[in-house]
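Q: Could you fold this chain for me?
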Amino acid sequence: MLVIKTMRQSSLLPHQCESPEPAINALIDEAAQSRGRSELCRAGPRLQRAGDTEPGTMCSLTRVLALLGALLWAPWRALHGAPLAELSGDQDFQLFLQKNLEFTRKIKGDVAALQRVVCDTFQLCKEEELLLVRQDLGIAQVPLEQCHSRNFQAEACFSQIRDGLRAYHGSLAAVLELLPGDASLVETLQLDAANLSSNIQQQMEDLGLATVTYPTEGRDALPAFSSSFHHQVGGFFILANFQRFLETAYRALRHLARL
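A: Sure. Below is the predicted structure, expressed as structure tokens.
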């Protein structure tokens, strides 16, 4: 618990393209000093290597655990210190986040239900078995990197979520054609995606956040499926990508709600 607490409070985090070891060593030294054991940790190896023995084993293990924790935490640690301090206590903003967290969770559940239908109907259930076909279809994941960027900006994240929802609203037309027996669920999903996108746009305007529009070339047009099997696989990946998109958006909204 000491290591995790120190990581969240410290501003020393590795750059994505640099070795994280120096920053992690600094974090552990800081934790060790607070416990009066800095000399022991400095005497031991920075990271456990083959052949290392006492007395640095415990410190080495601690550094490895800290390194793993930092790698997992780093994308979201960047949100701390983001220019949202003035919004963190705003009741309307918090209400917006909570409502749309629930809305996003509901949409995720509907996507999962359609994924089960595709699995049961077409026996398309595992992505790793369809990767080669996916390359032929050219179905790409809608980007959402602004929501876990080290230079996080609320308007950039919200804009990407909004634009991504609009893109998936259009892509779901292929799923609607694929699953006519589940048209009501697909249409509800399209409506929910449109409503969530509108909610985010309205909240951005209410907060006075700048609207950012990202290029969407090739993302709005549906791929031309050359066979019914390609259509089935295309529907499978549209839903899988949408689910990943929603997971990232949900984590971003949840993290903002906790700031």
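A (continued): The two ends are 19 Å apart (CA to CA).
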